[in-house]
Structure formats: C-alpha cells, structure tokens
Amino acid sequence: MQRPFHHRDHTGAFLFDLDGTLVDSEKHTLETVERVLVAHGVQSPDLALDHVAGRTWASIAEVLRQRHHLDIPVTSLATELASHWSQRIQEGVAALPGAVAFVRAVAATTPVALVTGSEPDDVDHILEQIGLDEVLPREVRICAGTYRRGKPDPEPFLLAARRLGVDI
Predict the structure, then answer these.
(1) What phi, psi does 15 have (nearest 5°)?
(2) Which of 104, 117, 122, 150 is most buried by a 10 A CB count?
(3) Coil, strand, or helix at residue 48?
C-alpha cells in the first residue's frame, strides 16, 4: 500500500498566485481593460485572458498599445488601467472556494509566499478582505515593482524562494 502524500515530505515552500488562484478577480481585470480601451475609442475590444492574466499593468499596457495602435504612452495607459482596477476591487473581491482554508493549512507547516503581478496596495487590500493578511505578511508578498521581469520569467519566483530562505 502506498503511503499518503504529505507536502512537507516533498516541498520546501509554497508560492501562491493571487488573481485567479486565491481570488476571483480576473473578471475585474477583463472589465478594466475593456472599459479603458473603449474610453480610448476601441470598439468591441477582442480580449483574451492570456494577454492579461498574471501580468503587470505595464506589460498589459504595452500589449494593448501595440495591438490596438493606441497613441498614448505605456506609462499613462498602465496608470489608467491600475487606477480603474484599484477602484473596482475596492468594491470587493471574493476568495475562490477553499483557497483561504488551503493557504492556512499549508502555512501551518510550510513556508508560504505570494507571487503576483498586482500592485502592493491592491494586494494588501485584497489579502485583508479575504483574511490572509497575517498568513502572507508583506515581506513574503512579491508584487509588481519588486522585480524587473514579470511572470512567466522565473525572477519573481526566485525572489520569493530567497525571501523564504529556500535553497534554489
């Protein structure tokens, strides 16, 4: 008979994403992108989640600017997107079923960190809303602005591992 899997036997740490993993916020991201594009004259924007999921607003803005031939600086577009999204999540973001309990259970025995493309202030707000702000303290929140190359580049994940003291 095979022994049950115990994550402590095989894992030095758990790194969690936020949007679409712990919270149901991807719909807010798509809504934000659509509203900003429409405000810039793009009718019926063709949006795909893979163009925005897990990415910083700066990288999303660059893709949107090129794809829709927008005559606006990337930094301005990124600021506009981030501002709209921050306002939207202030209304509330729901944790995905089982996510909070799972993070708490894992954190009881294993170091945990958060790796996200979201801005630090938004992450603080969301984690407070769902009750994980103490489980995932600021020093283990790898957010936009704490790394140069975002996901899927390994940089933010390696930074999280280093902060947790995990051998890489």
Answers:
(1) -115, 120
(2) 117
(3) coil
Catalytic residue ranges? 17, 19
Q: Which segments of the chain does DSSP mark as H helices, in order?
A: 7-10, 26-39, 57-67, 74-90, 99-107, 120-130, 155-164
CB neighbour burial string for 53-80, b if at least 16 within 10 angstroms, e if fewer: bbbbbbbbbeebbeeeebeeebeebbeb
Element at 14 (helix H, strand E): strand 14-16
Within 10 Å of residue 5's Cβ, how many Cβ atoms? 7
**Nearby residues of 65 by Cβ (< 8 Å), 6 or more positions away:** 72, 74, 77
**Looking at residue 118, what is its pLDDT?**
86
pTM of the predicted structure, to 2 decimals: 0.78
CA proximity to 16, closest of 121, 154, 112: 112
- Alpha carbons 89 and 91: distance in angstroms, whole number: 5
Instruction: Name the packing angle between helices 74-90 and 26-39 (round to 10°).
Output: 130
Cα–Cα dist 129/134, whole Å: 12
Residue 152, amino acid:
P
The conformation of residue 151, written as its DSSP 8-state character, comes to T
Q: How far apart are CA 116 and CA 137, in angstroms?
A: 14
